[in-house]
Design goal:
Helix content of chain B: 25-40%
Number of helices of chain B: 5
Low-confidence stretches of chain B: none
CATH architecture of the largest domain in chain B: Roll
Order of helices and strands of chain B: EEHEEEHHHH
Radius of gyration of chain A: 19 Å
Mean pLDDT of chain B: 95
CATH superfamily of the largest domain in chain B: Beta-grasp domain
CATH topology of the largest domain in chain A: Uridine Diphospho-n-acetylenolpyruvylglucosamine Reductase, domain 3
CATH architecture of the largest domain in chain A: 2-Layer Sandwich
Order of helices and strands of chain A: EHEHEEEHHHHHHEEHEEEEEEEHHH
Largest interface: A-B, 28 and 32 residues
Shape of chain A: globular
CATH class of the largest domain in chain B: Alpha Beta
Number of helices of chain A: 12
Largest sheet of chain A: 5 strands, antiparallel
Number of strands of chain B: 5
Structural class of chain A: alpha+beta
Number of strands of chain A: 14
Distance between the termini of chain A: 51 Å
CATH class of the largest domain in chain A: Alpha Beta
Structural class of chain B: alpha+beta
Helix content of chain A: 25-40%
Distance between the termini of chain B: 50 Å
Shape of chain B: globular
Largest sheet of chain B: 5 strands, mixed
Oligomer: heterodimer
Strand content of chain A: 25-35%
Chain lengths: ~280, ~170
């Protein structure tokens, strides 16, 4: 059962920020509720107030904007999986979204909520890191951009300040030579391991390699060392280096042993997924 | 900022006006009231079941504006201004929906506990995709769990209903 709470329904980001500032830890932002309400029902967290942000206008927008794809934080997974714009510009994200949880979770859950809740076993953050996305955070006194790679701090912890609200995710529009892939593996409801790779392919050479791993450890993260190993190599050279890159990424994943698998098992799977993701792009 | 009505100094209530199985319904809810509890305990529609309580099993599936939601994890006030269908609203004035007929004809259930959710989820599927492949059907329905494990008959039932509805 859900304990009693009060509902606030502000209509602007400034009002949300003001409420967060006023009520501190006793209030929490509420959007789709797919993760927050579960934690509240279990009694893991409790709030005196929920701040429903779904009355804010403009946060469900999805548009091409100045070299980037702008994704409003309130866009639901269902909106993303069915967007013609994303299908054209970011098909890897569409495929990821089509496989988030189940049809009911995708109907209610928002991309912003997914990112801010920062549940370790989540898909979007990992791919957004590899795609070089930035998060737009707003508060009463203004807004700032946070690189996706710097957004996730720890399990259930982001770099948002206490009175900040995530309003938008900006993904640079991939160029004609850009490739990306996201692969996950798991046997429970949530993924055990997720790996995202993005790169550009120019006359048989791979550049701008970005690799991110998620789910295995407390937070998704970029693996710069594995990226550096593959960057600037011919595809044949890069393919031959994949076992080494996979081992580096596996170690970097901060994998932990839990119900989703043992640490060494997850590290191994990171390598397998990295290899498959890479081969799917250069093959 | 909207100002929800307050019935009592500490107890906030929210007036909710929505369409329930085609009829206007007005009810006051507290913010923490779940859609499933409102529908089952206050409105007497017990077809939707509480089972996993964590949005995994689909036994509490309701349609909100035609799309499936987990009523166990949806706050009741969220249906303000929306249209809700429960399994009690699927038959049209006593005439079974083609999906219901197909589930009977093809034995698409065993104990029946998951059936209300299966029927509503598959209605949402066929409304948006009248001619699904079996793979599309399984992808859409994979969040509705049958613990009698009789999925083969369920898939057959939905495919048969789809065919009949297209005719």
């Amino acid at each position: 059962m859900l304990k009693r709470f009060r509902l606030e329904e502000p209509e602007s980001a400034a009002e949300v920020s003001e409420l967060l500032g006023r009520f501190g830890d006793s209030a929490k932002i509420y959007a789709g509720g797919t993760e927050l309400l579960l934690a509240m029902k279990e009694g893991l967290v409790q709030y005196e107030r929920l701040i429903n942000v779904k009355k804010l206008t403009g946060l469900s927008a999805l548009a091409a904007d100045n070299g980037a794809i702008k994704i409003g934080a309130l866009c639901t997974h269902h909106q993303l999986e069915t967007s013609a714009l994303l299908q054209e510009k970011l098909p890897t994200l569409v495929k990821l979204e089509q496989n988030v949880a189940n049809v009911r979770v995708r109907q209610a859950g928002s991309i912003g909520g997914n990112l801010c809740f920062a549940e370790p076993h989540a898909d979007p953050g990992t791919l957004l890191i590899a795609l070089g996305a930035t998060m737009v955070a707003e508060k009463s006194s203004g807004k700032r951009e946070i690189a996706a790679a710097n957004f996730f701090v720890d399990a259930y912890e982001t770099s948002l300040q206490a009175d900040e609200l995530l309003t938008e995710i900006r993904v640079p529009t991939p160029g004609a030579n850009s490739r990306s892939a996201y692969l996950k593996f798991g046997y429970l409801e949530r993924p055990s391991v997720g790996v995202a790779v993005a790169l550009t392919l120019n006359s048989g050479t791979v550049n701008d390699v970005k690799i991110a791993v998620g789910c295995a450890g407390p937070a998704p993260k970029r693996v710069a060392e594995a990226e550096a190993l593959l960057n600037g190599k011919s595809t044949a050279e890069a393919v031959s280096l994949l076992p080494q890159a996979g081992a580096i990424a596996g170690r970097a994943a901060d994998a932990i042993s839990d119900l989703h698998g043992a640490q060494d098992y997850k590290e191994h799977i990171v390598g397998v997924l990295l290899k498959r993701a890479f081969n799917s792009m250069v093959g | 900022m909207s100002k929800p009505m307050t019935r009592h100094a500490d107890v906030q209530t929210i007036p909710v006006s929505f369409t329930l199985n085609g009829r206007l319904q007005e009810i006051d809810v507290e913010p923490n009231e779940l859609l499933l509890d409102m529908v089952r305990d206050r409105l007497g529609l017990t077809g939707a079941k509480r089972s996993c309580d964590v949005q995994v099993c689909g036994a509490c599936t309701l349609l909100v504006d035609g799309r499936p939601v987990s009523a166990c994890t949806t706050l009741a006030f969220e249906v303000r201004g929306r249209s809700v269908m429960t399994i009690e609203g699927l038959a049209d004035d006593g005439k079974l929906h083609p999906l219901q007929e197909a589930f009977i004809e093809h034995g698409g259930f065993q104990c029946g506990f998951c059936t209300p959710g299966m029927l509503l989820a598959s209605k949402a599927l066929l409304d948006e995709n009248p001619n699904p492949t079996e793979a599309e059907l399984k992808h859409f329905m994979h969040g509705n769990i049958c613990r009698c494990t009789g999925y083969k008959k369920i898939v057959e039932s939905i495919m048969a209903a789809a065919k009949k509805m297209r005719a």
